[in-house]
């Protein structure tokens, strides 16, 4: 028996930890295309104001992780194919590694913006430690940063950069920030708080082109305006990495399709984290992947366990106006009701039967989180 995990992000390493809690004997191998350093990805968007270097964010190197997990950790090695019949993965080097059980924890790719202009290739993205390093170097001598995207990552970087003293423009096509998490009123409260930090928030527009101008760039917006910047950061969404699974003939929808046991359409192969769609849900956050890691770790150790998803509110680390939100499931009919003043708001979304299905808390109201979530139905309950 041998287990192979592809990916050493939070999903890969946390699966290995959960597995080793119950099984200290079975040979375990982790393979990763990156350096295998263990770090907490959410820290990437709060590192500048704390002056954290990439090295500061590393919790353990691959050798330490190998020792802790009693595992082989193979770094800088991309898996290019899965041979399901032969039960082995093929590496870019030509080597192959056999498995009895395979876990795909390959994460997601940031969506690349489609831009015109001779400096479109200079637009940066931050979805891992290496990209954070490039971004940090780029802003070291810069003063003006333009951010594309008003979601969690765009807003957190805007907050972080503004607090670190940068001049920040935040550009997105929706009417208000965090469109997937918040209704209008709390979203406006966040926008006002970001503006209070000095962030210039440009709603209802897209970035069309980026052209070089001296050491910096000029970005053209869809309404014809032009903004100067030294660095442009795109944070316009993620796409689960499904190519390996798809090419191996596994079922793929928005992510790699898995059931409550995190099993793909091949029972010898599991998937979790940002690459996976668990029972129809793609939730690219830490709490869901930790629940999945515990379940799949136990299952691999012989204790077949279904994942449960309680209410797992998303915490947005915008210190100017913290947000905790759990949006209602798509397609559920109901209405929002809110109270509060300024940036200290609470709202609840109840469905047609009066059941609480979603909520938001902002500012000082985030401390009400436990009380709000207590009675909410789980997304995936006990089986
Ligand atoms: C800036 C930022 C802030 C965030 N803040 C929060 C937050 O506050 N709260 C929250 O809940 N979530 C947050 N998230 C999301 C959260 O960090 C992710 O959901 C989580 O880290 C994903 O972990 P993962 O292991 O699935 O993927 P990743 O960390 O992307 O790991 C994927 C791994 O797979 C490897 N890999 C991929 N393809 C191959 C291949 N073919 N062969 C070998 N290896 C491969 C990669 O090298 C990597 O090791 C944030 C994300 C970002 C980018």
Automatic annotation (TrEMBL):
<feature type="domain" description="Rubredoxin binding">
    <location>
        <begin position="306"/>
        <end position="376"/>
    </location>
</feature>
<keyword id="KW-0963">Cytoplasm</keyword>
<keyword id="KW-0560">Oxidoreductase</keyword>
<dbReference type="GO" id="GO:0005737">
    <property type="term" value="C:cytoplasm"/>
</dbReference>
<keyword id="KW-0274">FAD</keyword>
<protein>
    <submittedName>
        <fullName>Rubredoxin-NAD+ reductase</fullName>
    </submittedName>
</protein>
<keyword id="KW-0285">Flavoprotein</keyword>
<dbReference type="InterPro" id="IPR023753">
    <property type="entry name" value="FAD/NAD-binding_dom"/>
</dbReference>
<dbReference type="Pfam" id="PF18113">
    <property type="entry name" value="Rbx_binding"/>
</dbReference>
<dbReference type="InterPro" id="IPR036188">
    <property type="entry name" value="FAD/NAD-bd_sf"/>
</dbReference>
<keyword id="KW-0520">NAD</keyword>
<dbReference type="InterPro" id="IPR050260">
    <property type="entry name" value="FAD-bd_OxRdtase"/>
</dbReference>
<dbReference type="InterPro" id="IPR041364">
    <property type="entry name" value="Rbx-bd"/>
</dbReference>
<dbReference type="Pfam" id="PF07992">
    <property type="entry name" value="Pyr_redox_2"/>
</dbReference>
<comment type="similarity">
    <text>Belongs to the FAD-dependent oxidoreductase family.</text>
</comment>
<feature type="domain" description="FAD/NAD(P)-binding">
    <location>
        <begin position="2"/>
        <end position="279"/>
    </location>
</feature>
<dbReference type="GO" id="GO:0016491">
    <property type="term" value="F:oxidoreductase activity"/>
</dbReference>
């Amino acid at each position: 028996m041998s287990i192979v995990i592809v990916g050493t992000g939070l999903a890969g390493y946390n699966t290995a930890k959960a597995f080793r809690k119950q099984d200290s004997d079975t040979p375990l191998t982790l393979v990763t295309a990156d350096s295998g350093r263990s770090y907490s990805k959410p820290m990437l968007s709060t590192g500048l104001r704390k002056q954290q270097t990439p090295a500061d964010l590393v919790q353990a190197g691959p050798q330490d992780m190998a020792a802790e997990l009693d595992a082989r950790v193979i770094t800088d090695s991309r898996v290019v194919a899965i041979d399901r019949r032969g039960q082995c993965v093929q590496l870019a080097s030509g080597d192959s590694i056999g498995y009895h059980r395979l876990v795909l924890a390959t994460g997601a790719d940031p969506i690349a913006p489609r831009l015109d202009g001779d400096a479109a290739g200079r637009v940066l993205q931050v979805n891992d430690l290496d990209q954070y390093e490039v971004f940090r170097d780029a802003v070291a001598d810069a003063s003006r940063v333009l951010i594309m995207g008003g979601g969690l990552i765009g807003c957190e970087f805007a907050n972080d950069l503004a607090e670190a003293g940068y001049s920040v423009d935040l550009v997105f096509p929706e009417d208000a920030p965090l469109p997937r998490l918040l209704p209008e009123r709390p979203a406006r409260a966040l926008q006002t708080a970001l503006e209070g930090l000095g962030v210039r928030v440009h709603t209802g527009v897209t970035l069309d082109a980026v052209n070089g101008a001296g050491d910096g760039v000029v970005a053209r917006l869809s309404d014809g305006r032009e903004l100067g910047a030294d660095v442009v950061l795109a944070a316009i969404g993620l796409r689960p990495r499904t190519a390996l699974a798809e090419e191996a003939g596994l079922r793929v929808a928005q992510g790699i399709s898995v059931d409550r046991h995190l099993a793909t359409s091949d029972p010898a192969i599991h998937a979790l984290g940002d690459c996976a769609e668990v029972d129809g849900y793609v939730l690219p956050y830490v709490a869901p992947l930790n629940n999945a890691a515990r379940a799949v770790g136990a299952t691999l150790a012989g204790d077949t366990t279904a994942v449960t998803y309680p209410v797992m509110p998303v915490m947005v680390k915008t210190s100017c106006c913290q947000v905790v939100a759990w949006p209602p499931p798509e397609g559920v009919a109901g209405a929002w009701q809110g109270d509060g003043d300024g940036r200290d708001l609470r709202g609840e979304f109840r469905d047609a039967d009066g059941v609480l299905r979603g909520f938001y808390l902002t500012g000082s109201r985030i401390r009400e989180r436990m009380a709000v979530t207590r009675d909410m139905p789980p997304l995936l309950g006990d089986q």
